[in-house]
Amino acid sequence: MIFQTILSNKKLLTACVIAVVITICAIVVPIAVVNSYDEAPKPSKFSGREVLDEVPLIDGHNDLPFSIYLVEKNLINHFNLDSNLKQHPVWANVNTSHTDLPRLRQGKLGAQFWVAYIRCADTQYKDAVARTLEQIDVTKRIIRKYPNDLKYADSADGIMEAYREKKLASLIAVEGGHSIDSRLAVLRLFYELGVRYLTLTHSCNTPWADASPVDDQVPAPSLNNLSAWGRHVIWEMNRLGMMIDISHVSYGVMRDVLAHSRAPVIFSHSSAHAVFEHHRNVQDDVLRELARKRGIVMVNFYPLFVGGNTIDDVIKHLNHIRSITGVDHIGLGGDYNGVAVTPEGLEDVSKYPDLFDMLADGVLRTGETFEPWTREDLQKLAGLNLLRVFREVERIRDSLVEEDPFEDLIPYEEFVRANVADQPCLTDMEMHKS
Ligand SMILES: [Zn+2]
């Protein structure tokens, strides 16, 4: 009878159901809690890729613009980056093709430094400046062509703005001091065009900075390191707020730049020399000095620099650098589209989330374990470290706002000392002589 009364009254029925649920919870939940105390406490598990939804993943170095030059001659009106290039009749056969919009989305990239690069061997002292401008131009046109996916950025705030809009912040870098043709005027105008880092050399020496191949030359050449005028280049970069990239430079230049720069510096795509001895990698004493000066090394994935061809080998470099600099000075600079081989497990730009998962788990593919990276560590690796460096470079720029631009010309003696004084394509070398 009473049940019939209850069933006929909906309010009463709801109240009874709630009462029963509360009673069950009161009994079951304490048992569950007691049970969980019975087991040893476990660290909270998370998958590393979650971090990429919390902070922007910023990659320091991608050579897509150079691929577009090689494959499309920079003619992009009929080129579709928003397609699977692995199935494109031409791009599918290009061994340096690792990037397209679908794979960038899969890779959860938040920001990319796109590199305006031209070879130094055939352009230095010739048409390097014009050729670099073409690469800056094609990068800007690609960014404009995909406004729903890419957003031009030239500041740390710009990166965060794009990230909030769920677009890939697209920044421009120039790789190689040969691109400024020993002229501060060109450096300043590159900044106005949006260039936010300059790699001081590629694989050729400039008159004012040695490139890393000198470290391997036999017999050892007489080194110029960073010249007196080279110091003016880095001070002008400090004044402008352009990040100084010391990937590709010689050991001596790394040391000189760290000694003289007023702002933290970056390696946009370099790995650890102690893990694999290659002149493109960074020695431990330089890593220590880099950390002391609050800079960042963004780790390169290229198997020939890493010294192995799997994702495990890349992780060994990350772990080594973490052991030397701590977690505040590491980032990622995959060098995609700039290399013909990529590691197994990091084949293209779609694979970053797998790397983050493995770092959080602390297990290599071989089963070997290492100290897992915490959520906070991975946030720093992904992007917070680069953002900190970028902001510091901007702050130093703002503090130097009263400083006049450097106006001096590179002295003729520096061309002589670098053995490049006789340059038929350069005019008015006399100007440098007084
Ligand atoms: Zn490079």
Q: What's the layout of helices and strands?
A:
Layout: H1 2-8, H2 10-38, E1 58-62, H3 64-72, H4 101-106, E2 111-117, H5 120-123, H6 128-145, E3 150-152, H7 156-164, E4 168-175, H8 184-192, E5 195-199, H9 228-240, E6 243-245, H10 251-260, E7 266-267, H11 284-292, E8 296-299, H12 303-306, H13 311-325, E9 330-332, H14 352-361, H15 375-399, H16 412-417
Parallel strand pairs: 1-2, 2-4, 3-4, 4-5, 5-6, 7-8, 8-9
Helix pairs in contact: 3-6, 8-9
This protein binds zinc ion.
Residues 175, 248, 269, 338 line the site of zinc ion.
Description:
Helices cover 42% and strands 9% of the residues. The protein is of the alpha/beta class and 434 residues long. The protein has one domain: Metal-dependent hydrolases (TIM Barrel). The strands form two sheets. Strands 1, 2, 3, 4, 5 and 6 form a six-stranded parallel sheet that branches. The protein has a three-stranded parallel sheet with strand order 7-8-9. The longest helix is centred in the first third of the chain and has 29 residues. About 3% of the residues have low confidence. It catalyses: an L-aminoacyl-L-amino acid + H2O = 2 an L-alpha-amino acid.
